[in-house]
Amino acid sequence: METDFAPNPSAPFFLIVADYETHRFCVEGPMTNDGPWNRAAGRARENDRDVRCGPKGLDRRSLSAEFQRESGFGGVPPGSILRPRE
After folding, report:
1. Bridge partners for 14 per DSSP
2. Which is more confidently placed, 30 or 1?
């Protein structure tokens, strides 16, 4: 999956969070650190949920459209799949 991702680690980006059991995804961000989201996805997997983070991209709409086209998943509002602890 190609994404428009900046090499600058402090540049704000958007992140796909996907639930592979329900075939839903949301786009979270902008953010500069996806650590809380990855930790929340890890906790979800520990509780038998198939939740994954990624890919990342600079543009919410193109990231969403590309992920939906490639995965066939339905989009849901941000915060619908995971709520990370800060």
Report:
1. 57
2. 30
Give the integer Cα–Cα distance in Å for 57 and 29.
Answer: 10
Tens of pLDDT, residue by residue over 10-34, are: 799 999 999 999 999 999 999 999 9
Q: Is residue 22 part of a domain?
A: yes
Whole-structure pTM value: 0.87
Query: In angstroms, rounded to a whole number, what is the distance separating the alpha carbons of residues 83 and 31?
Result: 14
- Residue ranges making up the domain that contains 60: 13-75
For residue 9, name the pLDDT band (cuts at 50, 70, 90): low
In single-letter form, the type of residue at position 44 comes to A
Distance CA 86, CA 70 (A): 31
DSSP-assigned beta bridge partners for residue 74: 24
Q: Torsion angle, CA of 28/75/43/10, rounded to 10 degrees?
A: -20
Number of domains in the chain: 1
Are the C-beta atoms of 59 and 4 separated by less than 8 Å?
yes
